Amino acid sequence: MAQNILVIDDERAIRKALTEILTFEGFTVEEAADGEEGIKKIKENNYDCILCDIKMPKKDGLEVLQFAKEEKPDVPFIVISGHGNLETAVEAVRKGAYDYISKPPDLNRLLITLRNAMDKKVLVAETKQLRKKIAKGGSEMIGNSEGILKIQDTIAKVAPTDARVLVTGENGVGKELVARKIHELSNRANGPMIEVNCAAIPSELIESELFGHEKGSFTSAIKQRLGKFEQASGGTLFLDEIGDMSHDAQAKMLRALQEGKITRVGGEKEIKVDVRVIAATNKNLLEEVEAKRFRLDLYHRLSVILIQVPSLNDRRDDIPMLVDHFLNDLCEEYKQPVKEIAPDAMKALQQYNWTGNIRELRNVVERLIILSDKTITKKDVDSYILK
């Protein structure tokens, strides 16, 4: 299928020359005689690349560029520049143009630039598609129980905002999955999501981990280190097991949330950070507050939105869907045909007491795939599930 190029130039001779060259090279070419006509065509049609003069009547090339970047941001835009407009052409590249070509255009350079621009467009499209695929597979919430549907509804409402979210629930229920889904549906999806397991970091190191440190600030600080807040700037910071954070770190966390600024360990400069914080815990933080182990003011800062993830025992109707999902994923991973599961085996899984929640269910399904024959029977479940 021929790729579609739009040529925008007020010089008829240039337009015709470019059209002849590009048509000969197998492209489909449309023309516009000024910026206004070019904007109209961009709005109404889809193009694989746009070639646009800088100096034109009605609307100049920079105005067309601005419109194109807003209306069709993924379409590469190449500026055609006379020698007197070189600085403007460079400015256009700074504002999002892929490249610029000087007049009169050199045929070889024009074709190389054009093909490179369209190759980049294809790569960008493929990358976006892969990210969507990874996001779907990595953060798919399986189930249609009332509790899960309520969480999905809350996520849809909360994700586009920058509101802080506190996710609570037992170990293994999928709190990280909720945090990832919020990030992926947010306006920060193209930014990083940085995870910190507060329970896994010694209390004396948590401050350095979160806020970073300057060279020489303590014995082993042989170079400057950026903390998780700075790494997550423009994205999301996920604080898992927030209930295990030390009191000193809680106080500094509170200041960072209040002011949107952090100071590295051993540093004096305040650094502004743009971070959305999502926290998670398996503890009852209000009980922790009563026991003087967690700050009430930090709890209120973190819990603008509360999401309670139900245990697997509270959503047994979702177990068949979860089992089917794990069967498909794990059999594909092990490169073997998807195994069937007998109805009485599924019923046995639904009746089991899942103290480890979804994490335990996945482990059990993996064990059954490895140790069972083509069909997973109730006997297999009774034999291989750890009572």
TrEMBL record:
The modification 4-aspartylphosphate is found at D53. Residues 4-118 form the Response regulatory domain. Coiled coil: none annotated. GO terms for biological process: phosphorelay signal transduction system; regulation of DNA-templated transcription. Keywords: ATP-binding, Nucleotide-binding, Phosphoprotein, Transcription, Transcription regulation, Two-component regulatory system. GO terms for molecular function: ATP binding. InterPro entries: AAA+_ATPase, AAA_lid_NorR, CheY-like_superfamily, P-loop_NTPase, Sig_transdc_resp-reg_receiver, Sigma_54_int, Sigma_54_int_dom_ATP-bd_2. Residues 141-370 form the Sigma-54 factor interaction domain. It holds the Pfam family AAA_lid_14. Gene3D superfamilies: 1.10.8.60, 3.40.50.2300, P-loop containing nucleotide triphosphate hydrolases (3.40.50.300). The keyword Kinase does not apply. This is Response regulator.
